Amino acid sequence: MSPSGGVQPEDEPFSASEPTVCIASQRSVEWTAKRQIIRSSMFEGGWSYMPDQPKLLVWNYTPEEKDELDALLKRIGAPGAVSIPEAHGYLTLKEIIAGNGEPGEMLESKEKVLLFHSIPQKGVFFLIDLFRQTDLPEPIYAVVTEHSIDWPFNELLGHLVQEREKTEKGPGDIESAQ
After folding, report:
1. Best CA proximity match to 117, nearest among 151, 87, 88
2. pLDDT score, position 52
3. For residues 140 and 114, is the Cβ–Cβ distance under 8 A?
């Protein structure tokens, strides 16, 4: 609550120790509650760019799409996403996340990918739901796992595209293709 006792503005950072009062609408109350849940479950311990810290990685977002995504993340108190440069497309996810590895051959792909690294399941579901409420193009969403972190990004991308294609075909189409 603000010192004057009024409604706390949406863009103002909130504190877990202070209650946030919203009287404008049910949607405002729901948004504020979601912000508090995501803040406590997803951003606990703060954000830094260490490999074990939460991070969103994006592939093939235009500068305008990335700016829109970052503005949305800022509204919920999260840092912006990190773009994977085309010259890092053949590095392992571990190297990309840690900021290690030498740029190499340019990876070309028109697919859009958004990777969640070290974000709890609640946070992943919240963010996907939030992103789907925007005009941003729908990427392939994926969570970096203890196994996929050692994969080169280009191999993960190929695997994700295959999985999406199988899912879009449906169970009958998959069986007949085998």
Report:
1. 151
2. 73
3. yes
The region that residue 124 occupies, defined by phi over 0 for left and psi between -120 and 50 for alpha, beta otherwise, is: alpha
Tokens of 147: 């196994």
The domain spans of the chain are 1-42, 46-177
Q: In what order do the strands lie in the sheet with 55-59?
A: 82-83, 55-59, 113-117, 140-143
DSSP bridge pairs for 56 = 116
Nearest CA among 11, 5, 51 for reference residue 19 = 5
* Structure-model confidence comparison of residues 25 and 162, the more confident one: 162
Q: Which H helix or E strand runs over 33?
A: helix 26-42
- Residue-wise pLDDT for 12-44, tens only, equals 333 333 333 333 334 443 444 445 444 444 444
